[in-house]
Design goal:
This protein has about 475 residues and is an alpha+beta fold. Helices cover about 30% and strands about 30% of the residues. The strands form 7 sheets. A 6-stranded mixed sheet has the order 1-2-6-3-7-23. Strands 18-19-20-9-21 form a 5-stranded antiparallel sheet, with helices on one face. Helix 1 packs across helix 3. About 50% of the residues are buried.
Length: about 475
C-alpha cells in the first residue's frame, strides 16, 4: 500500500503530491508554483505578497455567505534533515514514504509532515465540492522553519478573515491557544591557523545515533545533544598535560533541531594515545547509561587520522571547547501558569567551520515570558563573550498569549466533544508558531491551532499516525461546517 491509497483519500492524495515536491526553507518556488496551478485548475482566486506568501480564496457555499471568513494557515517549507549514510538531495529529490503499521515515515530523511499535512488539509478543503462553509482564505506562508520570514513580512490587509485556524501542531485531540516566543544567538570565533606540532596522536571522535528532535516541543524529553556530548568528552583534554590541538569541529545543522551528530578532529601528545581510548570507553559507558531510555542508539566512535598540517590556534580552540561545555542547553524553567509547560529553554544547535577562518556556533532561545526570553538570551551571550567570541542576535519573534475566552476555542471544544465524546485538551506549546506574528498586524484575529499526531519532527525519525489524520480531517470539516454566525 502507498499513502495515496490511505483514507481519507483527499487529504492523503494531496499529502503525497506535496512529498514529491522539493521545498526546503528559502527554496519554496516549486511548491508555490504547484499551489498556483492548483488554484487556477479549481477556478479559485490566488494572490501573492512581496514576501512570497500565497493566499487562495474560496467563496462561501450557498446560504453560508453571512458567516465569518475563516483563514486556514500552514507553512509550505520543511526541515531538511537526513541520516549521514543516506543519499538525498533535498533541492531536487522527492521524499520516499513508507507505511509501518499505523504510521507513515520517510526513508532516512525528515517526512515533511511538518507542515505538509496542514497544506494538504487546506487543499482538500479548497477542492471539496461536498462541504458546507463560509468564505475560506487559505494562507500558505514561506520560510517558517528558518526564521518565520513569511509571517513576519505578511502585509496588513492581505487577509480579510476574522478567525484563523493554524494547522501546524502535532497532537490530535489537543487544541493549542498559545506558544513561546524565540530568538537566535550566534557566536563567531575568529582564529589563526598554525602549523601542526610533531609527535601527536591525531584522531577523529564522532557522536552519532542520537534521535534529535524539535528544539521546542522535544526540549524537555532529555534527549542527547551531540554538540554537548562532544564538548564533554573533549573538555578534559583542554586542561593540563595533553597538548590539545583542534583541527576541525562540526555539529548539528538547524537552529530549531537538537543536534544528532557531531565530530572533531583532534591531536594530543603521542604518549597519551592509549589514555584517549580508555577515557572514551569510560565516557561512552557513562553517557549510554545516562541516555539509555531517551537515546538508546547513542554511539561515539574514535578513528585514527593522518598527521595534520594545520591546527586552530591553541588559545582559540580551548576557549571554544570550554564555552561549548559551559553553554546551557535544555529546559531553563517551567511555567507557573500552565503546569507541565516548558516556559524557557535554550538549544545549542550547531557548530560550523566557515570560510575566512571562522567558527560559527548557533543557538536558539525560547520563552513564553518575554523577560525570561531576554534573560536566557543574555545568559548564552555572556558565555561566549567571556570566551572572546563576537555575538550577534536575530530579531526573534513574539509569543502568542493564550486567550481562554476565545469564541473559536469554545466552538472547537464543543465540536470535538460531540464528535468523539471526550473533551479535547487545551494547551500552549513551547515551540514557535506563526500566530504571534499574525496578531501584531491583525490584532482582531480569534485563533486556535490543531493537527494530527506527528512525532520526532525535525529529525529523520519524523512520522505521522495514520489514524489520527482521519480524526483531524473530520474535526476540521465539522469546525468549518458549523462555524457560528457573528454574534
Amino acid at each position: 500500500m502507498t499513502i495515496k491509497e490511505l483514507q481519507p483519500s483527499a487529504i492523503w492524495g494531496y499529502f503525497h503530491d506535496i512529498t514529491q515536491i522539493p521545498r526546503p526553507s528559502k527554496k519554496e518556488e516549486k511548491i508555490l508554483a504547484y499551489l498556483k496551478e492548483f488554484a487556477s485548475r479549481h477556478n479559485l482566486e490566488a494572490k501573492q505578497d512581496k514576501a512570497g506568501n500565497l493566499l487562495i480564496t474560496k467563496p462561501a457555499t450557498s446560504g453560508k455567505e453571512a458567516l465569518p471568513t475563516v483563514i486556514l494557515q500552514s507553512h509550505v517549507d520543511m526541515v531538511c534533515e537526513k541520516n549521514s549514510d543516506v543519499e538525498h538531495d533535498f533541492d531536487n529529490d522527492p521524499i520516499e514514504t513508507v507505511i509501518e503499521g499505523d504510521w507513515v515515515k520517510a526513508k532516512g530523511t525528515t517526512l515533511g509532515a511538518d507542515n505538509g499535512i496542514g497544506v494538504a488539509a487546506q487543499l482538500a478543503v479548497l477542492a471539496a465540492d461536498d462541504l458546507s462553509h463560509g468564505k475560506i482564505e487559505a494562507l500558505f506562508t514561506i520560510d517558517e522553519e528558518t526564521g518565520l520570514t513569511g509571517a513576519n513580512s505578511l502585509e496588513k490587509g492581505f487577509m480579510t478573515g476574522d478567525i484563523l485556524i493554524n494547522l501546524d501542531t502535532e497532537e490530535e485531540g489537543e487544541i493549542y491557544i498559545g506558544c513561546a516566543g524565540g530568538r537566535g544567538t550566534k557566536a563567531y570565533f575568529h582564529y589563526k591557523p598554525k602549523n601542526a606540532p610533531k609527535n601527536r596522536f591525531w584522531f577523529k571522535v564522532s557522536v552519532k545515533g542520537l534521535r534529535g528532535g524539535h528544539s521546542g516541543s522535544d526540549i524537555d524529553k532529555k534527549l542527547g545533544n551531540a554538540n554537548k556530548l562532544l564538548a564533554r568528552f573533549l573538555y578534559p583534554f583542554t586542561r593540563g598535560k595533553y597538548g590539545f590541538n583542534l583541527v576541525e569541529i562540526t555539529g548539528g545543522n538547524l537552529h530549531n533541531a537538537i543536534a544528532r551528530e557531531a565530530y572533531a578532529v583532534v591531536g594530543v601528545k603521542e604518549k597519551y594515545k592509549e589514555e584517549v581510548r580508555v577515557k572514551l570507553n569510560r565516557f561512552l559507558a557513562e553517557v549510554q547509561e545516562e541516555y539509555k531510555k531517551s537515546d538508546p542508539g547513542l554511539a561515539i566512535h574514535l578513528e585514527t587520522m593522518p598527521p595534520a598540517t594545520k591546527v586552530i590556534k591553541k588559545g582559540t580552540s580551548k576557549k571554544l571547547i570550554r564555552s561549548l561545555m559551559a553553554c546551557p542547553h535544555g529546559v531553563i524553567g517551567m511555567s507557573q501558569e500552565m503546569p507541565g509547560l516548558v516556559e524557557t529553554s535554550t538549544n545549542l544547535a550547531s557548530i560550523k567551520m566557515m570560510d575566512g577562518h571562522v567558527i560559527e556556533v548557533g543557538t536558539s532561545q525560547r520563552s513564553s515570558v518575554e523577560s525570561q526570553k531576554k534573560q536566557v538570551v543574555q545568559m548564552v551571550a555572556a558565555v561566549f563573550e567571556l570566551a572572546g567570541a563576537k555575538v550577534v542576535h536575530n530579531d526573534g519573534y513574539p509569543g502568542w498569549a493564550p486567550n481562554p475566552d476565545s469564541n473559536i476555542l469554545r466552538h472547537a471544544q464543543a465540536v470535538y466533544k460531540r464528535l468523539y465524546d471526550k473533551e479535547p485538551a487545551v494547551k500552549a506549546i513551547h515551540a514557535g508558531l506563526e500566530c504571534g506574528l499574525f496578531l501584531e498586524k491583525y490584532p482582531h484575529l480569534d485563533m486556535i491551532s490543531i493537527g494530527p499526531d506527528v512525532t520526532d519532527v525535525h529529525s529523520p525519525d519524523e512520522k505521522m499516525k495514520i489514524s489520527s489524520v482521519g480524526k483531524f480531517w473530520d474535526f476540521l470539516v465539522k469546525l468549518l461546517e458549523e462555524i457560528p454566525a457573528r454574534g
